Amino acid sequence: MSGSDDDFWDRIPDPDPAWEEAQDWATDALALSEAQNFPNEEELKGQDRANALAVRKHLKNVLIAAVYLVPTLLAIVLVIWLLHFLLPEERAWLDEAQLAKLQTIFSSAFVGSIVTGLVQRYLSLPTDNGKPRL
To answer: In 3-state terms, what secondary structure has residue 132?
Structure first.
């Protein structure tokens, strides 16, 4: 650094001790604990692992909910569509545009699940060298 940079830092006054005492974080137990553990890299790595584990558990719960929710919703859509197809027209409560939308949603989900299953099966098959594809 040049001499002028050193002069700049020397001209910055130290903070007033009364200011630090007036701050909430100066007496906050969590902030003090964080300040004590900040130089301890191993403690911070442990917290990082704990956070990653918590995120993985949350994502697992979301996936489990999706595994039950998506087929349930698709079954409801299928039942509604079948009822409109089988019942007389005066008993139907959806118009043709709404039925077409239901049919589009159901057919795209059905085709998507078939394609996903085929891709997963293809990727899980070993190649000639015994390693999975891709």
So the answer is: strand
Query: Angle at CA 33, nearest 5°, toward 29 and 37?
Result: 175
Nearest to 50 by CA among 64, 37, 39, 62: 37
How far apart CA 68 and CA 54 sit, in angstroms, is 22
Kindly give the confidence (pLDDT) of every residue in the chain, 134 residues in length, as a single tens digit, with 9 standing for 90 and above. Answer: 555 667 888 888 887 777 766 677 767 788 778 777 776 677 667 777 888 889 999 988 988 888 898 888 888 888 888 888 888 888 888 888 888 888 888 788 878 888 888 877 777 766 666 665 55
How many angstroms separate the first and last alpha carbons of the chain? 52
Rounded CA-CA distance 78/72 in Å is 10
CA angle (39 as vertex; 34, 44 as ends), nearest 5: 65
Q: What are phi and psi of 126, to 5 degrees?
A: -75, 155
